[in-house]
Write a structure and sequence with these properties.
heterodimer; A: about 240 residues; alpha+beta; 2 domains; 5-stranded antiparallel beta sheet; 6 helices; about 25% strand; B: Immunoglobulin-like; Immunoglobulin-like; 8-stranded mixed beta sheet; 8-stranded antiparallel beta sheet; 1 helix; 19 strands
Chain lengths: ~240, ~270
């Protein structure tokens, strides 16, 4: 499981959890305020509270969950990253559409007027629109999922592994090459790779060579691919 | 997976985009029914509490009626009196909204006037304006009082402070008396019946002096016990029931009032 994809999932969860506690979009004022929460618009008007649930608001977090979860569930094909990117873009679009809903149907500025027994009262409701923190996280999620799509979730680079033997073992594991662990190294088919102090020794039937990590991996894979190979799963390897 | 991932992706993409489009369309369709309309209720309003017409000017007091949880704090505004056309800014004194207008002849006509205006302020922290129109009766306040009394050689001089909005004729005097403040009390003089001494005062604030020669010639039942203050007594009370005729444009109105004054003669008591 790639860290890049876990990060994408974490951002999706962070967006939804944070959104429960703070509005993704709000219009603040003394006696009139609108907050966009996961369950709809919470409108407060002189102590009265009403919840206006536009259907698109539910799509926002449903698409976000899809965008975070899909690359974890479907790991065989890179298409899952494409779909996740689409979901995150759709999620952002739904959020924008929900904000447009507010602009279209819940927009208010200026004076509210109410009749009184002797005339009218005009109350100025000044409001200030604020884009909340969850929206920025959703934006980050969208950018990350597009980036993951473009890089096949491989932009973080190779992890630094202290023991070169473990690095070789990882490669072999991923490729489903059978190997056996021996004292100080691994054995693949007819060759052994043994670590000695800071250098790696490639031991075959006839000779012992001091090699670097790259050569050691190449040799191990070369030998390993001669085995009857069972095709394993490679994360996001397929076209 | 046996099926082509490209086909699955394409299918899910088209489906999810379709769902998104349907939701956008559906939200627009349902919008009018899910929107809740609210208006303010039990809002504060302004009534004209009193209009007092005095010789110093006209005082209009506006009552702010907060009949709900919404608290209005006045900060300014203006009023216009429809009948006279006067426009004046209000002043806020201890939360009371008061407008002071100059006294003009139009104020003598009507029994009530219409007052319109705007009071600005804050409602729960929001800037608010209350526009109002109200009809209110006019109270005309005229005050007449005794400021000074002197009595010597059977001549009584009474200085009256007159604050009136219309010209007045003060007099006649009915049953006046001057007596000592002591136990027992002693009369200096007393009259039974009407003394036809009058004095005219124009509208406004003035001091006028009534001069009365107290003698039996004033009437049959005039008893003069002394032509000067009684010796040994320094504190006296003047009892002066008097008629006042107000000369309104609509007609004269006569009312009777009792003016009294307790005063000290000389330095002692």
């Amino acid at each position: 499981m790639r860290v890049e994809v876990l990060l994408q999932f974490a951002l999706a969860i962070a967006f939804i959890v944070l959104w429960v506690f703070m509005p993704a979009w709000s219009i603040g004022g003394a006696n009139y305020s609108i907050s966009l929460m996961p369950w709809g618009y919470v409108v407060e008007f002189f102590g009265e509270t009403h919840i206006i649930p536009p259907p698109t608001v539910y799509a926002v977090w449903l698409f976000t969950i899809d965008a975070g979860l899909l690359p974890l569930v479907w790991r065989r094909s890179r298409y899952s990253l494409y779909l996740a990117a689409l979901f995150s873009v759709l999620s952002l679009s739904m959020l924008m559409d929900t904000i447009l809903f507010q602009q279209r149907y819940l927009q208010f500025h200026g004076y509210t007027i109410a009749p009184t027994p002797t005339g009218y009262i005009y109350v100025l409701l000044s409001t200030k629109p604020v884009l909340g923190l969850p929206t920025y996280i959703l934006l980050a999620l969208t950018i990350l999922s597009i980036f993951n799509m473009a890089t096949r979730a491989r932009w973080l680079g190779t992890r630094v592994i202290e023991d070169p033997i473990i690095a070789i073992e990882r490669v072999l594991k991923v490729l489903h090459i059978e190997y056996s662990r021996i004292e100080g190294g691994v054995k693949v088919g007819g060759i052994k790779i043994i670590r000695r102090d800071d250098s790696l020794l490639l031991v075959n039937d006839h000779r012992i060579d001091e090699v670097d990590l790259g050569t050691a991996i190449t040799e191990a894979v070369k030998v390993g691919l001669k085995q009857p190979v069972s095709v394993g799963v490679i994360d996001y390897g397929e076209d | 997976m046996a099926t082509n991932p490209f086909k699955i992706t394409l299918l899910i993409s088209i489906l999810s985009i379709a769902i998104a489009l349907i939701l956008i369309w559906g939200t627009a369709q349902t919008a009018p029914s899910i929107i809740h309309y609210s208006t303010l209720s039990n809002t504060p309003y302004i009534k004209v509490e009193s209009i007092n017409v005095t010789s110093n000017g006209v005082y209009i007091r506006l009552a702010l009626i907060n009949n709900g949880a919404l608290a209005f704090t006045p900060t300014g505004g203006w009023v216009e009196v429809v009948e006279t056309g006067q426009v004046v800014n209000v002043t806020i004194i201890n939360g009371m909204v008061i407008a002071k207008l100059p006294l003009t002849p139009q104020w003598m006509g009507p029994a009530s006037v219409g007052v319109k205006g705007i009071v600005s302020g804050t409602l729960n922290g929001s800037r608010a304006y209350i526009a109002f129109f109200d009809l209110a009766p006019i109270h005309i306040i005229n005050t007449i009082g005794i400021t000074n009394v002197s009595y010597a050689d059977c001549v009584l001089n009474v200085t009256l402070s007159v604050n009136v909005v219309v010209p007045v004729v003060i007099g006649p005097i009915i049953n006046m008396s001057l007596f000592t403040v002591s136990t027992p009390g002693y009369y200096v003089f007393e009259t039974v019946g009407v003394v036809n001494t009058t004095v005219y005062a124009p509208a406004g604030s003035h001091n006028v002096t009534l001069t009365i020669r107290v003698s039996p010639a004033l009437g049959r039942y005039t008893y003069v016990y002394s032509c000067n203050y009684l010796s040994g007594f320094s504190k006296y009370t003047l009892w002066l029931p008097i008629g006042v005729t107000y000369i309104y444009p609509t007609g004269n109105v006569t009312s009777y009032t009792l003016l009294t004054k307790t005063f000290v003669v000389g330095g002692g008591s």
